[in-house]
Amino acid sequence: MQWGIKPDTPLVPACEAYATLSRIAMPKKVHSAARRARSDARKRARNQVVRTRVRTGLRAFLTQAKSDPKGAAPFAYRVISLADRAAKSGVIHRNAADRLKARVMARLATR
Hints:
111 residues, two-stranded antiparallel ribbon, Methane Monooxygenase Hydroxylase, Chain G, domain 1, mainly alpha, disordered N terminus
């Protein structure tokens, strides 16, 4: 197969790499690389959402712990739940989640 641009390929890219790879007619072995790039882009987007939720929950907990320490417990439990779910799905390492939970609980205990 010749390398080149396919003329009637619609562009609906999830990322820049996907847009580039989807418009090029590729030899057989490169198709698996293109599939892998598309899959990685989807996973990266999903992982980013999970990491952002954990960080946002942590930020909310820290803000609450600073302003009203007694009302921070529900925020702490939310952060712990988010960290556990992120570790379960492999977005963050299990030890990183445990470290985060320990720091949240230590902050909660000192207030």
